[in-house]
Amino acid sequence: MNVQQLQLIYPQATVVTAPIVKPNTVCIRLAAEKYLCIETAKLGRRELSLLELLTQTKAPQAAIDTWSNFLTGEATVAPHTTAKQLQLLHFQVRFTDDSQHHHQWLAALSDLFNDVVHRTFTTENDGYLLLADPISPLTQPDLTGLLDLLDNDFYTNTHLFIGSRHGDVQTLPAAYRLERQLFEQNHKQAVGTLSSAMLPYLATVHHTALDTLTNELLTDPDNQQLITALYQTQGNVRQAAAHLFLHRNTLLYRIDKFERCSGFNLKAMDDLVYCYLLTLAQTNN
């Protein structure tokens, strides 16, 4: 019986080139680099036994992934490591051709970094690397270029999210859950970071409270563009003016007018960040 016939019988099954290491999932090897993966919760005993007979093999037990079990809370004891600092690098990859070489792609991604403690897919398209050599801020812009090369080689579309650094391994599970949530909510950038994702996340979570604080001036599109341009240029008036195609003096006039009407000084970083957060809450409504 071929793969197409099996999928007609089991429409919930997925065919992948690497077994998915995930709780309650059985992956049966069909051929070289081809596995049929089914969530066991969706199968009865008779269905699973029939599947084993049809493929003429016994469904293997999923390999125990101790790091994933620890990060997802299924285990409370962390795997042993001598690393002084650990950092999660989350990824999502979409394969655009029929030959999905998960193992080769994951190995190529890992080769971009110095010391990878663990690497795995948690679903067919998502997973993470656990790094013992945290990424330097100087290398973050370079990752976008490296991803372009990787995607060109494998015909993929990849997004990364750089997590925080941890000296205490016990803090990793909570960080893993929050970072995955931030990553899933923001795929606008090829390489995302906590600093770029946290304010939009806070604006989404607390949008009701922020709505009560929002000055009506912040609902004006021109003021929203003004605040966003200043925030994205770290308050640099000259760069913000160039971004908005305005003369520097015109931008200064708008900043002063906004302060007179709202009481917020956009040249002060605290006021600028606060107004930007309120602006994000408006755009998320």
Would you give an account of this structure?
The protein is elongated. A 5-stranded mixed sheet has the order 5-6-4-7-8, with helices on both faces. Strands 1-3-2 form a 3-stranded antiparallel sheet, with no helix packed on it. It folds into 3 domains: 3-54, no CATH class; 66-196, Alpha-Beta Plaits, CATH 3.30.70.270; 206-284. It is of the alpha+beta class and 285 residues long. Helix 6 packs across helix 7 (194-205), helix 7 (194-205) crosses helix 12 and helix 9 (221-232) packs across helix 12. The chain has helices at 3-9, 45-54, 66-71, 102-110, 140-154, 172-185, 194-205, 207-213, 221-232, 237-243, 248-262, 269-284; strands at 14-16, 25-31, 34-39, 86-95, 116-121, 126-131, 156-166, 191-193.
Mean pLDDT over the residues: 83
**Beginning-to-end CA distance, first to last residue:** 52 Å
Q: Which stretches of 5+ consecutive residues score pLDDT under 50?
A: 57-62
In the CATH scheme, the class of the largest domain would be: Alpha Beta
**In DSSP terms, counting alpha (H) and pi (I) runs of 4 or more, how many helices?**
12
Structural class: alpha+beta
Main pleated sheet: 5 strands, mixed
Strand count: 8
Strand order within the widest beta sheet: 5-6-4-7-8
Q: List SSEs in N-to-C order.
A: HEEEHHEHEEHEHEHHHHHH
CATH topology of the largest domain: Alpha-Beta Plaits
Short recap of the structure:
The protein is α+β, with helices and mostly antiparallel strands. Helix content is 46%, strand content 18%. This is Helix-turn-helix domain-containing protein.
